[in-house]
Amino acid sequence: MELKAFQVENFRSIDQSEWINIDDVTALIGTNESGKTNLLCALWKLNPVSDDGKINLLSDAPRKLYSQLRASDKSTIFIRCKFELNENEAHHISKLRKTPNEGLKFTTVCRKYNGGYTVDFPYEQASNLSSSIFQNLITSKIKIINNLQLLKSENEEKRDKYLTTFEAIDSEFQSPIVDKARLEKCISLLEDLFDEKAPKTSELTKVYNDTYEFISSHLSNVEKPTSEELQKSRDYIIEQLPNFVYYSNYGNLDSEIYLPHVIENLERTDLGAKESAKVKTLKVLFDYVKLEPKDILDLGRTESEADT
């Protein structure tokens, strides 16, 4: 999933920003103290890569709302983000929510001060089936049944049985509402016609197969997702959220990084302010790429030994 836009509200000095569109490279331009840093911090706290980005009500809540938020359940939203899903993600959500892929290409994710998330699919399309598509199919099949040439092994009684069944199915689709129960009843009527010994070359067999496949293929379109499936779809989006990294002092690293010192400093608790800032930045970097300094050091030693 890819971030496309975000909006910040009720966060530090920001009451409510406009929607900010995101591209491969996006620059925020403004005067000092205009709120650029606060916009980025809010975005960072949607899903920070490290614990440094945890929500802190004391520093993140607007002063005028602090007392109110502290006394409440902290369900106030401070960041809204629009994401575009890739094809696989949209397909997975479509199966869970039982709605067409086309309306699931975008999702909106919000985060609250209590750490909770809300997930919405603003363009989701309800699965509505028109009875007319079934009426047209059944009408055409009744016409075919009346006019088809029977095989020598078939008789008019079989034709009449098909006509009776298809007329019963046609009556089911006189209502404009097509629901799961109606489709299942039509499938049941068709199954009463099934004959495993029926010739594959029979035109009646072809009519049966075409109709059965058509109705069955639309059955999933009228199924409603369970509350568990809806929750799974929201949980899936949260699991796929990208992690955000924010640097407030990205120029504090040395031009060269000596790994033995890095490993030692990561374990120390008595560093000064300057060295602590370096360690903090390095820790975020290593966490982000999911690597440990010791692993890189050991890898370098192994390669050196192999060369000798």
From TrEMBL:
A GO MF label: endonuclease activity
Domain Endonuclease GajA/Old nuclease/RecF-like AAA positions: 1-233
UniProt xrefs under Gene3D superfamilies: P-loop containing nucleotide triphosphate hydrolases
One matching Pfam family: AAA_15
Record keywords: Endonuclease, Hydrolase, Nuclease
Tagged with keyword Phosphoprotein: no
Top-level taxon: Bacteria
Protein name per its UniProtKB record: OLD family endonuclease
